[in-house]
Design a protein that fits this description.
The structure is a homodimer. Helices cover 27% and strands 33% of the residues of chain A. Chain A is built from nine helices and 15 strands. The first copy, chain A, has helices at residues 12-20, 33-41, 61-69, 107-112, 114-120, 132-141, 153-158, 214-223, 258-268, and strands spanning 2-6, 26-30, 47-54, 58-59, 74-82, 86-89, 102-105, 126-128, 147-151, 162-165, 175-182, 197-206, 229-236, 244-250, 272-283. In chain A, strand 13 and strand 14 (244-250) form a beta hairpin. The first copy, chain A, is globular. The mean pLDDT of chain A is 92. At the A-B interface, helix 8 and strand 13 of A face helix 8 and strand 13 of B. Chains A, B: The record marks 176 as: Essential for prephenate dehydratase activity. Chains A, B: Keywords: Amino-acid biosynthesis, Aromatic amino acid biosynthesis, Lyase, Phenylalanine biosynthesis. Chains A, B: Its EC number is 4.2.1.51. Chains A, B: Residues 203-280 form the ACT domain.
């Protein structure tokens, strides 16, 4: 089974894929989130794994927007993985790391280490890259650049960089949720290792235009059934100005009675509802 | 009156400031959103103007998070400005712009032109910068780099770049909301030009831990009073894992009865409520 992931090698997505799936899979790196999702839709791979939300920085908007507007894959699973950020440099600079002139990483990784950077590198500029792995790759290939990179342990190992400062993320309890995506109506079992999981269902809801309290009515349909929502999030529809759709995560698998009943009621109120997936969430 | 804005010169924030305020103000560029907000708190300036939300890309999380976690400024106004993106190159490359080898801009600007880039520059890499103005400045100072930049008309004028493709943003109806921020309890009148505005109030609400349906109850307090919400958004608290606070925009100014009544009820339910501002929203 082929699995696309947000590459290059040693990104947090790669780490999540190798930690969650059994060795029998072949993990294939793609450079952007859209390319991962395109690969799943075009049958180049069986599954795509992309970041969905970080507990500190919030949602990865590109994943949600691309799923809603461009490639209607279904969510067939979720991986929740702890995130530890380290400061890495080329081995030749391990004793002079305090003098690095630039720091490279993904914008989320830089944001997660905001306090550390303000304390140690207040005036050092940073460069945003498309992933922590890409930043590590660049620094390993450019020993002449006096740069540091924020990335994970796997990146230090694969790109042979030196960890000079461990656990530089500002907040403990830093986790990232990764979505496991599949073409619609393709229901192969996931080759996951034996690990604990909880059930989830994700819906997208659009509200009728300009109806005061429509969101309140939507939540009522869940509340009186005592259906627990673990998350509700708004995103711009891109169609109208200041028009939003909502992504709602429910803490149970799709059943025959409660969720279908809530969906039917919400639709009867004039809202649009789309089931994005009902799946297991694996905790690493 | 001194106004800090997200610089350098010719960013969309700069354009919003010069369009909304009378000429008597002195606009001062700062390089990052936190630095703008720090300047207002440290009395270096009287007001800070920073981007808050784009109609297509969604909220500028750094602004919201810094306002909540670091610098408790009050929102004293909002500027809503149309966004037009263009492709700019150094004048020496205006006839060979199809051959540029890299595109520089702010991540939001690049995301807003995703379709254009996939059509014209499918394999061209891009570099993220802290603002569209910074990207334009870099390209104007480095004629030897074969680069394009996505930025506004003001950037083309100030940095003497050539607009080679106009209006390359994917979606019409592209607007950005900018927050006008001030130190708490400092109530100077805003030096705005004569322009249309609507009233708004913004609240931050935190929910009690693990209470099913608490958000539903919060919305009930507004719904039964027929208080119209223009937006509700969740952000991670950064304290717990998968714990969120909510930013709620109300379509009216703070009154003596309805909003205070709703706030009192929400607090009685065990939620935290903080008034972030009650202000005029100016439409450019």
């Amino acid at each position: 089974m082929n699995v696309a992931y947000l590459g290059p090698e040693a990104t947090f997505t790669h780490l999540a894929v190798t930690s969650c799936f059994r060795n029998e899979i072949t993990a294939k790196p793609y450079i952007t989130i859209p390319e991962c999702m395109d690969a799943a839709m075009n049958r180049e791979v069986d599954l795509a794994v992309v970041p969905l939300e970080n507990a500190i920085e919030g949602s990865v908007n590109l994943t949600i927007d691309y799923l809603i507007h461009e490639q209607p894959l279904q969510i067939v699973g979720e991986i929740v993985s702890p995130i530890r950020q380290h400061l890495l440099v080329h081995p030749s600079r391990k004793d002079t790391w305090q003098n690095i002139e630039k720091i490279e990483s993904h914008p989320h990784a830089i944001a997660q280490c905001h306090r550390f950077l303000r304390q140690y590198f207040k005036t050092t500029p940073f460069d945003y890259t498309t992933s922590t792995g890409a930043a590590a790759k660049f620094v390993s290939e450019h020993p002449e650049c006096n740069m540091g990179v924020i990335a994970n342990e796997m990146a230090a190992k694969i790109y042979q960089l030196e960890i000079v400062k461990e656990d530089i993320h500002d907040y403990d309890n830093n986790y990232t949720r990764f979505a496991i995506l599949q073409r619609p109506n393709q229901d192969a079992a996931l080759p996951v290792k034996n690990q604990s999981s909880v059930d989830k269902t994700t819906l997208m809801v659009t509200l009728p235009n300009d109806r005061t309290g429509a969101l309140h009515q939507v939540l009522s349909a869940f509340a009186w059934r005592q259906i627990n929502l673990s998350k509700i999030e708004s995103r711009p529809t891109k169609a109208g100005v200041w028009d939003y759709f909502f992504i709602i995560d429910i803490e149970m698998k799709l059943d025959d009675v409660l969720i279908p009943g809530a969906i039917a009621e919400i639709e009867a109120l004039g809202c649009g509802v789309k089931l994005l997936g009902s799946y297991s969430s694996y905790l690493l």
